[in-house]
Amino acid sequence: MQLRRILQTIGVSLCALACLMLFPALVDLADRNADWQVFISSALFTAFLGGLMLVSAIDNTANEFSLKEGFALTTLSWVAIAAFSALPFAGLGLDYTDAYFEAMSGLTTTGSTVLTGLDNLPRGILLWRSILQAVGGIGIVVTAIIMLPFLRVGGMQLFHTESSDRSEKITPRSGQLFIWITNFYLALILICTFAYVTLGMTPFDAICHAMTTVSTGGFSTHDASLSFFQSDAILWTAIVFMLLGSLPFVVMIRALRGQPAAFYNDEQVRGFLGFVVGVSLIFAIWHSEVYNAPFQQSLLTTTFNVVSIISTTGFAYEDYTQWSQFAVVLIFLLTFVGGCAGSTAGGIKIYRFQVSGLLIKGHFRTLTSPHRVFPLSYNRKRLADDVPFSIIAFLTTYVATVAFFTLLLAALGLDHITALSAAATAIGNVGPGLGDIVGPKGSFAPLPAMAKWALSAAMLLGRLELFTVLVLLRPEFWRE
Length: 480
Hints:
Layout: H1 3-20, H2 22-30, H3 36-56, E1 65-66, H4 67-85, H5 87-91, H6 96-107, H7 123-151, E2 169-170, H8 172-198, H9 203-214, H10 232-246, H11 249-256, H12 260-265, H13 267-290, H14 295-310, H15 325-334, H16 350-368, E3 377-378, E4 381-382, H17 386-411, H18 416-427, H19 449-463, H20 467-472
Antiparallel strand pairs: 1-2, 3-4
Helix pairs in contact: 1-3, 1-4, 2-3, 2-7, 4-6, 4-7, 6-7, 6-19, 7-8, 7-9, 8-9, 8-10, 10-14, 13-14, 16-17, 17-18, 17-19, 18-19
């Protein structure tokens, strides 16, 4: 394993992170806020250590990462970047546990926060939170599209792109795909920013919310989240861009490059959008009837909450925990769904439910016609033999991981509702759970320190699609 190359790449990432710290420093300096010094000192320290790693580990002998090296690099990069991203939070008064939790929540685009009084915080730290989610969003897409299909974990082998092969090497063509994804991602953020400004947000609020909308992160610059703006048009705009962030980026790029049929023909896209529309309409009818509200307003309220949860963004608009038990249970169940593979959204992902449905359907066909063979296909391609087992293994691991963290949080003193919802939303990277502490109107600050470290680990595992657990459970992966 090329440890020097891994350290070199992490060093480059830390140097880039240090450069990003200059943007909130400039904002605080323009506001004549002394907190700019915290960002400068954090940037210098991060750049020093990153540069030290870069210089000491220079290795130009290899051009490609192996699968094992890519696995190690991906995992270590998330941990290291979160550790250094926490420095500005710690410098502004948070203890390191809270600072690391906030940084990990940002980078994994979970959106859980220990901060309160956002309306009164310096603009620099608000911008830093949004930048972390924007950085995390692009990292998530790249990991899902370039890295995970090689690992053949959780059915991700379904999404080998034209830049992937089965040589167990991360090829130079992956770099070309990264450039396309990055440009498309930045374009979405710019368009979203322009839309928000046009609808009445200040430029600062617009850029911060654009980054957290497209990345499906959910951090806001106001305690009231998007309901602060009292604008239906802003909410509908957020719905559109949360959905775009939840769709597979490769498919959208293909559509823009002259293959518009790729978007419509993708089974995952159709399933995801159909599910969102169906649940939103049923929920809106229920809300309109139960609360005697105009259907148009009910449609906005329910669609926003459904999309916010399914996309794992977690923006707040009305406290849905104050609705009936039916609504609370429905929204909690939606935290497990997630968006599409190859998007910034978390959760189980819609394609796993679709393939599971195919497996169930095929099983019943076999029961009625035991001597016939029913090949399973998805997106007009026959499923490889290892895909069904891979998805079942993932779903089993997902449920077991939620159960483990629920028990762990309960052992640390949390009540059963808080423990279950916090574990589920951390692994699903949704953000808000249920209850006064982790609910949409709550703050994670009162949680015990060990609970915050546990949730930080859960957020990372969820964002990496639990592939760290699944790979480590396969001893043959590490054999020469």
